[in-house]
Design brief:
294 residues, alpha/beta, five-stranded mixed β-sheet, globular
Length: 294
Amino acid sequence: MAKRNALGRGLGALIDDADHQKEHHGPSINEVPVENIEANPFQPRTKFDESALNELAESIRKIGIIQPITLRKTDGDKYQIIAGERRFRASKIAGLKTVPAYIRVAEDDGMLEMALVENIQREDLDAIEIALSYQRLIEECQLTQETLSERVGKKRSTISNYLRLLKLPTLIQKGIIDKTISMGHARALVNIPNPEDQLSIYELILTEDLSVRKVEDLVRNLENGSEKQEEKPEQEVKEKYPAEYGELKEHLSNFFRAKVDFSLNNKGKGKIVIPFGSTKDLERIMGILDKLNG
């Protein structure tokens, strides 16, 4: 059975407004059987990363689909994908029988654009719903960010910042929707290139109730650490290590609940690195080490 999509009530209300203005095939969110959906033959992307698809599928199993796909009705009960083929493929891997989707018809472009532009300023929309609305206007109404900026009266940089939120891991997007983290937290997290680091700091925000300023400091420390790593002499650059080292690394990471890493130089010498996100996190790790000594 398909899970309900994770959208808040704001975007649903926004789309309902468009339905009131259009009597047939309005762009509301529908649950469409997977077996009735076919790929777009003009889809420019032909290869999809299998590992990334499996990760998305696992996220969909746990949380559901945050961003509905967009379909065009064809013959009978069949639909063709306009946008969202990657989400569709991952949903099939996850075993969903239906997926949330917007159903489009050729002549509703103007109505959709008008409804989204007029309602995008609603106060009850969260940051992800706003970002999804911007993305729909860009993808489905074929607007550039510059044109969209004029339509909604927002700076292009503002629109870009919202769109970047959709690149965050699904769990963090869900946290934005549920208001467990603020837009300020999200803006800081989106500057971290590694999704694992994003999720680690996200967990710290929840467990330690970190302020936005504290998260920004953590992100800066991560960035500075990366710069120092790049500046290390060639002999200290990490080298590949045997498979058993990888198993030990994973074991230690689980034990300390931190992303433990190894650093090796070209002479075979190295060190074990246990990172911490805050003073409290360091105290937690020291407590584990103290128990080992005892």
